[in-house]
Write a structure and sequence with these properties.
This protein has two domains: 76 residues, Beta Barrel (Thrombin, subunit H); 35 residues, no CATH class. Helices cover 23% and strands 48% of the residues. A hairpin with a 4-residue loop joins strand 4 and strand 5. The longest helix has 15 residues. The two termini are 28 Å apart. By secondary structure, the protein is of the alpha+beta class. Strands 1-2-3-6-5-4 form a six-stranded antiparallel β-barrel.
């Protein structure tokens, strides 16, 4: 199921409210939108910033260098260790298993929807 919407949600990382998400599309498996961080996001910003820089480092190249690939893998591992969830405007919780934040853009892979997830 794909829902094209413009709705707001709150992003929580490791139990902290880190900002607002304007949801542009929410499907059963992936969601996309725009992210507006708050001050609490500063703790996580370097990790996402490094990932973003590495993703765009070799834009002109067809393949990343070996060094850049290793650094990208490490950044992705660090991001995957974060526990993320969204609280939709209707109060529904969405557990997230993969999260990408690239400047103002955000995308997430849905793990589970419904009741509030386990405490993080």
């Amino acid at each position: 199921m794909v829902s094209k919407m413009a709705a707001n949600a709150r992003l929580f990382i490791n139990g902290k409210d880190v900002g607002e998400v304007l949801i542009k599309s929410l499907a059963d498996s992936w969601g996309f939108g725009e992210f507006t961080p708050n001050a609490s996001f500063a703790e996580f910003a370097p990790t996402f910033g490094k990932w973003s820089l590495l993703m765009h480092a070799d834009d002109g190249e067809k393949r990343l260098s070996e060094v850049a690939s290793d650094e990208l893998r490490a950044a992705e591992f660090a991001i995957d260790q974060l526990r993320a969830k969204l609280q939709l405007h209707n109060g529904q919780w969405v557990e997230v298993v993969q999260l990408n934040i690239d400047g103002p853009l955000i995308e997430w892979k849905v793990a589970r929807r419904g009741a509030e997830p386990k405490k993080v």
